[in-house]
Specification:
Elements: E1 4-9, E2 14-19, H1 20-42, H2 50-57, H3 63-98, H4 110-124, H5 133-152, H6 159-182, H7 186-197, H8 205-224, H9 226-232, H10 236-241, H11 246-268, H12 274-286, H13 290-314, H14 323-341
Antiparallel strand pairs: 1-2
Helix pairs in contact: 1-2, 1-3, 1-13, 2-3, 3-8, 3-11, 3-12, 3-13, 4-5, 4-6, 4-7, 4-11, 5-6, 5-11, 8-11, 12-13, 13-14
Length: 345
């Protein structure tokens, strides 16, 4: 037990243990994220040295650098970190519920529901304020999850039915999005396709303040339920015999997963494969325990999206490529590898 840190909230509300190895790897991931953030803050049309960026962060930099870093570049960095953490945490929850390393919100249709809502909004309500796009995408993710849960219900919800119906919803969502785009004006098609690819271009402090409380609160709630996720990984029969309120716990966790996905997608579009990659890497480093994998997965997810956004901005200057292109370029081969690795299971 000396290798664990224990945290208890109330007498019966929630408690979990965190392995010191998890803290070590999470700290390494956070340090790497900070280093990439400093580099990213200095990159752009006007280059700023990393040391000068650090001076700005410490409040001792000159006014011009402070204006560029704090007003124009910092919101994008923070949104990338929050989006990556939200997607990774949602993937960790989904994999814990379904008990399958191939599960992720973007593969099981949750992101597809958000995409339908967002693309429909962009194409059908041209004159509406763009401020309504995030809540629309958020609502789309939640409604899709409710649909997924309802269709999968048959005297309860099993992981297999969630996977089968989720894949079907993803395919149907893709078809609906394609139809919406086909029958829309050319300029709106470009706008919708850019959103679908996944990009953090054009975010500001309002976006940061909008998603920050959601991401922090939802990840904290998921952490408090970590023991219930671990119990579900033992199988439905054993979970029930241990006193778990299985279907209620599964529903609550799915809603947290959907809310995290909707939060991320609402500001960054459909950035694929982060929810698949980050939890899998975390489990390879610290093991399958959800309480240990969740914080590390969130840290790795933040690093992945931040690095992808930096590459997207600088790889083909002055052309800016959506960050989702680079996460897909890495994630698609990794998904094929996981399919091959788990082919006999």
């Amino acid at each position: 037990m000396k290798d664990y840190w224990s945290l208890r909230v109330g007498k019966r509300l929630a408690s979990f243990q965190l392995h010191k190895k998890t803290l070590l790897f999470s700290l390494i991931a956070l340090l790497l994220t900070f280093a990439v953030a400093v580099v990213s803050l200095g990159m752009g049309e006007m280059s700023i040295k990393p040391l000068d960026v650090l001076k700005v962060l410490l409040g001792t930099g000159d006014e011009q650098n402070a204006l560029i870093v704090q007003q124009f570049r910092m919101p994008r960095i923070l949104v990338a970190i929050l989006v990556g953490a939200a997607l990774a945490a949602s993937g960790a929850i989904m994999q814990g519920i379904v008990r399958n390393p191939l599960a992720a919100p973007d593969i099981l249709g949750v992101s597809g529901g958000a995409s339908i809502a967002a693309v429909g909004f962009l194409l059908l309500f041209e004159t509406a304020s763009i401020k309504w796009l995030p809540p629309t995408a958020f609502a789309g993710a939640l409604l899709t999850t409710l649909l997924l849960y309802g269709l999968a219900w048959k005297k309860g919800v099993t992981p297999l039915r969630l996977v089968m119906i989720g894949v079907g919803i993803k395919i149907a969502a893709g078809a609906i999005v394609t139809i919406l785009i086909m029958f829309s004006p050319f300029l709106l098609q470009n706008k919708a396709l850019l959103w679908l690819t996944g990009s953090i271009y054009g975010v500001d402090w309002n976006d940061v303040f909008m998603i920050l409380p959601w991401v922090v609160i939802l990840i904290f709630m998921a952490a408090l339920l970590s023991r219930r996720v671990n119990i579900q990984q033992l199988g439905d029969d054993l979970s029930t015999s241990l006193g778990s309120i299985l279907q209620l716990d599964r529903f609550i966790l799915l809603m947290i997963c959907a809310a995290l996905t909707g939060t991320a997608v609402s500001v960054a579009g459909d950035i694929s494969f982060v929810a698949l990659l980050a939890p899998h890497i975390a489990k390879q480093l610290v093991g399958p325990s959800f309480g240990g994998a969740l914080p590390l997965a969130a840290s790795i997810g933040a690093l992945i999206v931040l690095a992808a956004d930096l590459i997207a901005r600088m790889a083909f200057t002055p052309i800016e490529v959506p960050a989702g292109v680079f996460t897909s370029a890495v994630g698609a081969p990794f998904f094929i590898y996981l399919l091959y690795k788990n082919r006999n299971r």
